[in-house]
Design goal:
The structure is a homodimer.
Chain A: H1 3-7, H2 13-37, H3 45-55, H4 62-73, H5 82-103, E1 107-108, E2 111-112, H6 114-117, H7 120-142, H8 146-170, H9 178-203, H10 208-235, H11 238-241, H12 247-250, H13 256-264, H14 268-279, H15 288-297, H16 300-318, H17 326-339
Antiparallel strand pairs in A: 1-2
């Protein structure tokens, strides 16, 4: 399966993974640098300073790297996809700025959110202008695929808004099913990941079946990523995670663990705990450990781990129809790396 | 100048204007109908009911009609521009939804604003999804001009955000110059009008010089429209206007009248009144008539009227290089109609 293992047996799989990690680090650095300089000369500063602030927030740059890898995996040149990679990253950050207003989140990745450091009006405008900026960058790389790339981009905006609207609806409901939850995160989290793969494949000049494979891979990666996120909220090391353990529980969020609980935990003290989480503003901080134990005991933590694993394995299968290449191998490494993350 | 007056002398100019008014009414009705049905089948309803609410708000549909006329004026077919016309109208309404949050406006065109009827989070999302919807519609008509049309669209988003950011900066300043004010309204109000003309010209397959002429015309129309708006706040008939006279004065807005006042009214009671307007949350309602008298006495109302007239005359000159056509004549009528409006 791994070309290098077969053709160059002297190199071990681990070494390749180190190479991939270096490669990822270099791309991430390039993306960080370009995002850091993007609006430094633009006026008015009351609009662009907060844009700079949010784009300097770093993050994993998953969508940007996935776009580059998807372009490469269909035989395209990465140089011709860099602006598009910045574009999807900016679009992702637009969703964060607006979501943070709605969630009244004071910090993100250890830094003040835009509406906290400035004000809500500024945060609304900052998110809006980022859509325009993202689109201008995408146009630079879209070339002959303009219509298809912009179609993917605008569908992405619509779907991510629909996902967020559903998430907000769910906060008012105590009977969200796992199926509904998975649909919601496929829209809210999965769609921009899928869009990144689609646009990368389009810019790389990929065949429709290869672009579809990349999209299917990315969609599952997005789902696995979100369930992993929900899991890490309870099982991560607080220092590694960079934020308080159990935040989702304290805020009463409808996570994968909670919707599984709604379906699987029928009665007794466990059900009472769940009802308490669902009924008000969430559980008090001193109940987080109790909740963790409950989810563990009911097999929900294990179920979540299995689902993350299952989506990842399925995602890797989607890649099989792509021509064997270093980029394809790196896409496999990429999904494993994301699922082994601790923050 | 008017083709029909020369070739068909039996028809008077007035009759043609009646035709134009009918034509405008038919287009407006078509646009209203299409916008009214646009999202009726879309889910989730928590997102799309507010979209329906805002799109049912009617309004003058100036940008949509201007796009159709621009397309026709360069020889294009209106049938191929209808979705693009809806697109610019939706993009305009997105700006209204988000501006209304920032301005804490409870009503618009006599109807509750989205953030009042629902909540701020919903209004943020509703504006966001409208950008995606607008873009999807534009793609349907953009054809071979995709890159240019989307470029105009995304520049429009960026500029209108920059204009709004400047407007917000000005609310904190007492020394805004007329030049700064005109730049701000060119971005905040003028740009989407200009964008409508540009996209109409592109879809119609117009030559660059004709598209540039349409843009120049539209830009001036946008400026004249905004100054007229500022003027109507004080001189309109309250019933015709559909809202309280002097609203801008009461809210302490930096309108054309106010920035002219900053430059022209140096001392005495008039200056004191102006300082009062600038220093706090605006003037009390019982001072509106005093302010109107002051602006009248200082020649500022007349200056504003002259500027509206001047921009309109200049805008008409821009149309001269276009081939003579019914659409061009209607564009002339269109600007006159807008400037004679009473609301």
């Amino acid at each position: 399966m791994h070309r290098y293992e077969e053709s160059e047996p002297k190199h071990s799989r681990i070494e390749y993974r180190m190479d991939f990690k270096d490669q990822y680090g270099k791309w991430k650095e390039e993306i960080d640098n370009r995002l850091g300089n993007l609006v430094e000369d633009r006026e008015p500063r009351s609009l662009y300073e907060p844009v700079e602030h949010i784009l300097a927030g770093e993050g994993k740059r998953i969508r940007a790297v996935l776009l580059l890898l998807s372009c490469k995996a269909v035989g395209g040149s990465i140089d011709k996809a860099l602006e598009a990679a910045l574009s999807v990253e900016i679009l992702h950050n637009f969703t964060l700025v607006h979501d943070d207003i709605m969630d009244k989140a004071a910090t993100r990745r250890g830094r003040q959110t835009v509406h906290t450091k400035w004000d809500e009006g500024t945060a609304i405008l900052v998110g809006d202008v980022m859509i325009g900026l993202a689109q201008q960058l995408l146009l630079k790389n879209a070339g002959g695929n303009c219509a298809a790339a912009i179609d993917a981009f605008s569908r992405g905006i619509i779907d991510v808004c629909e996902g967020q609207a559903l998430d907000r609806e769910f906060e008012q409901r105590n009977d969200v099913t796992t199926e509904e939850y998975l649909y919601m995160i496929a829209m809210k989290t999965g769609r921009l990941v899928e869009m990144a793969a689609e646009i990368g494949g389009l810019i790389g000049g990929g065949k429709p079946e290869h672009i579809n494979a990349l999209r299917a891979y990315a969609r599952k990666l997005g789902l696995a990523f979100q369930i992993q996120d929900d899991l890490l909220d309870l099982i991560a090391d607080e220092k590694q995670l960079g934020k308080e353990i159990g935040r989702d529980i304290i805020e009463g969020k409808r996570t994968y663990l909670v919707v599984q609980g709604i379906e699987l935990v029928a009665e007794g003290k466990d059900r009472e705990l769940l009802e308490q989480l669902l009924s008000g503003p969430g559980l008090p901080a001193n109940q987080v450990e109790v909740a963790r134990t409950m989810f563990q005991k009911c097999g929900i933590l294990d179920k979540a781990r299995q689902e993350v694993e299952r989506y990842c394995v399925d995602a890797l299968k989607d890649l099989e129809i792509l021509p064997d290449s270093e980029a394809r191998t790196m896409l496999k490494w990429f999904s494993e790396m994301l699922m082994r993350r601790e923050n």
